[in-house]
Amino acid sequence: MKSKRPVPGHQVLLQGFLEGSVRGLARAISVVENERDGFQDLLHTVMTSGPQTKRVGFTGPPGAGKSSIVAAVATAYRGLEEHLGIVAVDPTSPYSGGALLGDRIRMNDIATDPGIFIRSMATRGSLGGLATATKEVVDLMDSFGFDRVLVETVGVGQTELEVTAAADTVVVVLVPESGDAIQAMKAGLMEVADIFVVNKADRPGAPRLVKELRQALHLRSGRALRDIPAHHGVDLGKAMKLERVSDASEQEGEEWAVPVLTTNALTGEGVDKLLETVEAHRRWLVESGELGVLRRARSGIRIRDVVDREMRRVAWNSERVNGLLTQGVEEIALGRGTPYSAADNILRALLRQRA
Amino acid sequence: MKSKRPVPGHQVLLQGFLEGSVRGLARAISVVENERDGFQDLLHTVMTSGPQTKRVGFTGPPGAGKSSIVAAVATAYRGLEEHLGIVAVDPTSPYSGGALLGDRIRMNDIATDPGIFIRSMATRGSLGGLATATKEVVDLMDSFGFDRVLVETVGVGQTELEVTAAADTVVVVLVPESGDAIQAMKAGLMEVADIFVVNKADRPGAPRLVKELRQALHLRSGRALRDIPAHHGVDLGKAMKLERVSDASEQEGEEWAVPVLTTNALTGEGVDKLLETVEAHRRWLVESGELGVLRRARSGIRIRDVVDREMRRVAWNSERVNGLLTQGVEEIALGRGTPYSAADNILRALLRQRA
Q: B95 contacts in A (CB within 8 Å)?
């Protein structure tokens, strides 16, 4: 993790990555995903010099047709000769497996295009740790030099929404069947959306959903950076004094009005308009200065993620701590202690000072 | 968190709790849920002297009828004059709201019984943090002196399964509609189940599900403590040398064979048999020595949870750390650093030594 240290064992990989070899990228992703020795040095090295790419996120409930939209959008960007990286986060819930598989099959249409690099990641079994790894894979793709990185997640959990927030522009895809605007609000989708898309717009119920979403959006302001979720009671936006910037742009009347579009991903209807709107959002991000604010917030979240992970790693890989853990378990069994007295001993050994 | 320190501001509450006042319990839960000042001291105090109660967990997919089963089981235990605490963890996912609400209504039948104390908790929006708080509420109920504590969770995520693992006996409730044995296996339900219940057993598909589950169970051994999930790459079971104990009990042929029962919670069919089986599992836990192993593993997990939470709290409430965070964000914006170099500075300030 020292900035000057060469990346041990990963020099060949790194050289390939920096030369734009897709194989180098694939190997780098594998090193990061598996947290192999030196993965943080590798990330540090590529991120120091790496470009900052446009990131577009797609989220929404299972079955909304996100993958079809991503496939249609990717095909359109390929028509503009863009090189694309795609990160698809699969929740692999056994209770929604069918719908997801169906989506994934449609993604195969674009999987053979050499101008597109697709990486699927599973979230099952993680405790928030995978959100960090996924964001690191997005960072790798960003540093690799794609013209654009697309991130697809199922908007059903905190982990997925967290990953979505790693994008500059977040497209929330809904279908009439996925419920009404109130459900989208409850799922936290209103907070992350820069653009709403009602897909399968030919189905009954679509016009009503569009209307409901517009009404619900009218009641709130654009996705503001004040909305960075508090993390374990810590308001990161406040800590980084991001509020002022966001408020300033509001005063200047530069608020982004979240549009509600309609598409039919299978026929391609509405996809051009979606691309135009993504570009319009990009222009707004740049011109209003919000892109800088967004990137700062993202940096802060990434720092915090890395610190949290490293604290756990240092703690639970320490022989001393594991000795104190065993001792604590023993004392609890004998009725002489509790998890709190045991934790206290461990924290004293770990931290320079207690709060 | 010092063991001798009185619990500041919570003396009256604590006295009520120790005297068995339900109001004291309710207030203690509220202090713990909201992580109010002194909540860890409070937990330490009540857990030092508190009894260790029988804990039975119920989990399964949405709509399986868990709440009906819990209500039926609770009614049966009340018939035996047991005092019960119930912790119901609500995932409040907007995409499954209907089914859960339906379940909760059935719970109302027992909610007016003064011999039963029910607490509902929501998991939405948490990043694993709420799993810890929920386990602390279960610990409070345990220490309060109920004859038995029932824990109900929806088995759809890591958080929920983690909470389930706080029980001594885990009952997994399925219905034919919730899918086949392979889906249960994928959801991690096979790993946590001590007893399977196929509810709504009069429906078509129930006999087939029972058969499939028995076949799938035949292929594996009982819920062993080897199965304690690795936490951020740390094998807690290994760290606490729990493997040997578990292997020993296997050699002595004392393995628990996970039974598959059928119920119809609405008619009460099969509930008596379920109660008998829970008691049989209890006897096995005690006689095989597995209860001690289970409690040790649970203590270890609780210590680890408290340490992880405290590390985060200490880090992100520190002015020094927040200063380094702001500085790190600035350096990244200027292209002079990455989240890894910034995290390195913070970790140096926080930890006594790096790994």
A: 61-62, 156, 178-179, 183, 187
pLDDT tens for residues A129-149?
A: 667 888 999 999 999 999 999
Chain B residues with CB under 8 Å of A326 CB are 239-241
Model confidence pLDDT, tens digit, residues A2-32: 444 556 678 889 999 999 999 999 999 999 9
Report residue A353 as tokens: 């000072």
CA dihedral (B11, B15, B16, B19) in degrees, to 10, reads 170
Distance CA(B3)–CA(A344), nearest Å, equals 9
Nearest by CB: A340 against B233, B306, B346: B306
Q: Which residues pair with A72 in a beta bridge?
A: none
| A195, containing H or E segment | strand A195-198
Measured between CA atoms, how close is A198 to chain B, in angstroms?
17
Residues 215-254 in B contacting A (C-alpha not used; CB under 8 Å):
229, 231-234, 239-241
Asked if B37 has any chain A CB less than 8 Å from its own CB, the reply is no
- Count of helix runs (H) and strand runs (E) in chain B: 16, 7
For chain B, the domains span 1-49, 51-287, 318-350
Nearest CA in chain B to A63: B95
Residues 6 or more apart whose Cβ sits within 8 Å of residue A72: A263, A265, A268, A271
Task: List the single best residue of B95, B132, B139, B236 to mutate versus A (max A Cβ within 10 A).
Answer: B95
Tokens 């936290």: give the residue. A188
User: Could you list the pLDDT tens digit for every one of the 355 residues in chain A?
Assistant: 444 455 667 888 999 999 999 999 999 999 998 889 999 999 999 998 766 899 999 998 878 888 899 999 999 999 999 999 999 886 554 443 333 444 454 566 677 788 999 988 875 444 446 678 889 999 999 999 999 999 998 766 666 677 777 899 999 999 998 777 877 777 778 888 999 999 999 999 999 999 999 998 887 654 443 344 433 333 455 444 444 344 444 445 578 999 999 999 889 999 999 999 999 999 999 999 999 989 999 999 999 999 999 999 999 999 999 999 999 999 999 999 999 999 999 999 999 876 5
CB A94 to CB B179 under 8 A?
yes
- Tallying the residues shown for chain B, one arrives at 355
A327 reaches B (C-beta below 8 A): no
The reported pTM is 0.82
**Residue B75 distance to chain A (closest CA, Å):** 30
| Cβ under 8 Å to B: A residues 250-289 | none
Using CA atoms, how far apart are residues B185 and A53, in angstroms rounded to an integer? Answer: 40
B 67-96 near A (Cβ less than 8 A): 92-95
Pull the structure tokens for residue B209.
């599900």
CATH for the A50-287 domain, from 3.40.50.300, 3.30.390.30, 3.30.70.330, 3.20.20.10:
3.40.50.300
ipTM over 0.95: no
Considering the segment(s) B51-287 as one domain, its CATH architecture is 3-Layer(aba) Sandwich (3.40)
Question: How far apart are the C-alpha atoms of A349 and A352, rounded to whole Å?
Answer: 8
How far does chain B reach from its first CA to its final CA, in angstroms? Answer: 26
| Strand-pair partners of B149 | B55, B85
